[in-house]
């Protein structure tokens, strides 16, 4: 089968960083696995992070890619939720071969039915960032999605125009929050508003003064999706007593977790959406349930795809361009690729 592989850890400008290769197709699925024919993929910062990670000289070529939409070709004997021909979308498992290949084996418990109202590229934009935002808000931070208890509360989303931010804005608004997103360019600010942000402020400027100008003196919850260290102190100031902060980016150094975090009893929550699959948690099937629920919300018009730019077919040159844009920090929403040459 056709695949895009990483052989060595190289800068993305090196053509050998990602290359086209014919590799053996996966075998028939066993256990909970599905064999999926991949029709579209999306690209995330984790792809670039995995590509940059050091590799042994004798390590076999690796297939990256952790967002896909496609069609089920075959199912393992323990699969009950899917059948051949089903259209699906998923983020997969960072410990297994990724989706930058024509066929992929993936555990059915982390797969959802594709929204029927979306094409494969728009669907492929959703899984990883949707699971990250949903798990962070509603599993880790224990906020409530649809019982209206958050009406009148403030949610601050730092990095609102990124993939996770784009979905966090939508989910936060659906949960009843007044959502304040940050963006630093007119295009990214417009995108945040299109995703549903009530207010947009500039994260390159002091946040407290901008919020105070809108009459906001404190926020009830905050997601720092951009730079844990840079906004640590200011979030301690901005969060209300018993507020909550959600994080996805590893800090570069130690964080001071005394006052005001301690004095205000601010809770700190980490999210890594591959944790369930990586550690085989007992609630692994929750990702299947989340993706199915999100598909229903998309089909009902309550949530929308965060796909922004399609870069063409799935091949090494187009994936290198996607990685290049991600590493430059210029991406709004999600980058997608669809079909094979």
Q: Please, could you describe this protein's structure?
A:
With 341 residues, the chain is α/β, with parallel strands linked by helices. It has helices at 45-52, 120-124, 127-140, 163-174, 186-195, 207-213, 232-238, 261-264, 275-279, 286-299, 316-328; strands at residues 2-6, 19-22, 33-43, 62-63, 68-75, 87-90, 103-107, 111-113, 154-158, 178-182, 199-201, 219-224, 239-247, 267-270, 307-310, 334-338. Strands 3, 5, 6, 7, 8, 15 and 16 form a 7-stranded mixed sheet that branches. A 6-stranded parallel sheet has the order 11-10-9-12-13-14, sandwiched between helices. Helix 3 crosses helix 4 and helix 3 crosses helix 10. 48% of the residues are buried. The mean pLDDT is 95.
Percentage of residues in strands: 15-25%
Biggest sheet architecture: 7 strands, mixed
Rounded to the nearest angstrom, the radius of gyration is 20 Å
Protein structure class: alpha/beta
Give the integer mean of the pLDDT values. Answer: 95
* Uncertain spans: none
Task: Give the overall shape, derived from the CA principal axes.
Answer: globular
The first-to-last residue Cα distance is 12 Å
Contiguous helical run count: 11
Q: Tally of extended strands?
A: 16
The helicity comes to: 25-40%
Note the run of SSEs as H and E. EEEHEEEEEHHEHEHEHEHEHEHHEHE
